[in-house]
UniProtKB/TrEMBL annotation:
Keyword Lipid metabolism: yes
CDD domains hit by this protein: CCT (cd02174), ECT (cd02173)
GO biological process: phosphatidylethanolamine biosynthetic process
Span of domain Cytidyltransferase-like: 32-155, 218-302
Cellular component, GO, one term: cytoplasm
Stated name of the protein: ethanolamine-phosphate cytidylyltransferase
UniProt-listed Enzyme Commission number(s): 2.7.7.14
Length: 371
């Protein structure tokens, strides 16, 4: 029987003229949970992949008490971790104080169809798989873990004061990972569509294609406040040598590649410029029609020639100093880690031991099956 669509969006049959309501597609709701301590681009990439499994993504974040019990003391407080996860652009809802072991009751409570987690190992203090219940019920899906970054690794960099993670030039940017973070893979699109939220620009000294937004990549409160000043927020990312020149020690803790991916994942950021120059130039301001250049409350170190890197926007009346009302800095986080150094080292050691035992068990099980 032939049919046609009416102006109201219903199906009208030619024989009887009856109006049948169009069936609405069921919304797929996804659950993901974790500690999300020292939120980095590995967390963001897992969240991005999880969102691609459905329509609405709920992210449960464990409390300080739960994290301490099963892993050891977190670096960030639960309130700080809740805020950082909410700032990731693919998160639709954050569930505070989520249980450490994911249960079917939790999925039912929030009307979630299934749970998504990375392909790494997560266990309780007793060595039990935290996802064994949802796995047994067939309500578990996996996404790929981002290699090369973890909270354990970042804590290690801070404790060891190493610079081996630094990059020496812009060519070391991994375009594959940047592209994955900066695009939402749309169904039926083959991944070719650009993200409706985020663009990426690579700074090339010969083209002057650069937008300087701020000296510091900053934290969530700063970016949120900066974004409220306009319609399109552009963040310039300095190279590792530039950051090291004005911050010293082993800064930056994350290299330019890692910082780029982390900033791209922030819901307040519209575009990221890789390898932004330290000083804001007249050509830059004119070419990109920049309305406001923002900086936080931290001291501004002069450029190599002793000049103020913000002299141009200040002269044009386009410079704004932002007070995010949050005094948390990278140095304060490092101080927390140093203060509890032995606890974090023990936490990392125990985590590594548990993972080795589980991997060995999995290897032995595989050998028995194939033998």
């Amino acid at each position: 029987m032939a049919s046609k669509r009416s102006e109201e969006g219903c199906i009208e049959t030619e024989h009887c003229g009856d109006m049948l309501p169009q069936k609405k597609k069921k919304e797929i709701r996804i659950w993901m949970d974790g500690c999300f301590d020292m939120v980095h681009f590995g967390h963001a990439n897992a969240i991005r992949q999880a969102k691609e499994f459905g329509d609405v993504l709920l992210v449960g974040v464990h409390s300080d008490a739960e994290v301490t019990r099963h892993k050891g003391p977190p670096v960030y407080t639960e309130e700080e971790r809740y805020k950082m996860v909410r700032a990731i652009k693919w998160v639709d809802q954050v569930i505070e104080d989520a249980p450490y072991v994911t249960t079917l009751e939790t999925l039912d409570q929030y009307d979630c169809d299934f749970c998504v987690h990375g392909d790494d190992i997560t266990t309780t203090a007793d060595g039990v798989d935290t996802y064994h219940l949802v796995k047994a019920a067939g309500k578990y899906q996996e996404c790929k873990r981002t290699a090369g970054v973890s909270t354990t690794d970042l804590v290690g960099r801070m404790l060891l004061v190493t610079k081996s993670h630094h990059e020496r030039d812009e060519d070391s940017i991994d375009e594959h990972h940047v592209g994955a973070i900066s695009k939402m893979i749309l169904k039926g699109d083959g991944g070719s569509s650009h993200s409706p939220w985020t663009g990426v620009s690579q700074f090339l000294t010969t083209t002057k294609k650069i937008i300087q937004f701020s000296e510091d990549v900053g934290h969530v409160d700063f970016l949120e406040k900066a974004a409220s000043l306009g319609d399109f927020l552009i963040v310039g990312i300095h190279t590792d040598p530039v950051v090291n020149r004005y911050k010293g020690s082993n800064y930056p803790i994350m290299n330019m590649h890692e910082r780029t991916l982390s900033v791209l994942a922030c819901r307040y950021v519209s575009e990221v410029v890789i390898g932004a120059p330290y000083a804001v130039t007249p050509d830059l301001m004119e070419h990109f029609k920049v309305d406001v250049v923002c900086h936080g409350q931290t001291p501004v170190m002069p450029d190599i020639d002793g000049s103020d890197p913000y002299a141009e926007p200040k002269c044009l009346g386009k410079f704004k100093s932002i007070d995010s009302k949050n005094n948390l800095t990278t140095q304060m986080i490092i101080d927390r880690i140093i203060q509890h150094r032995l606890e974090y080292e023990e936490r990392n050691r125990k985590k590594e031991e548990k993972e080795k035992k589980i991997l060995e068990h999995m290897k032995n099980t595989a050998q028995i099956k194939t033998g």
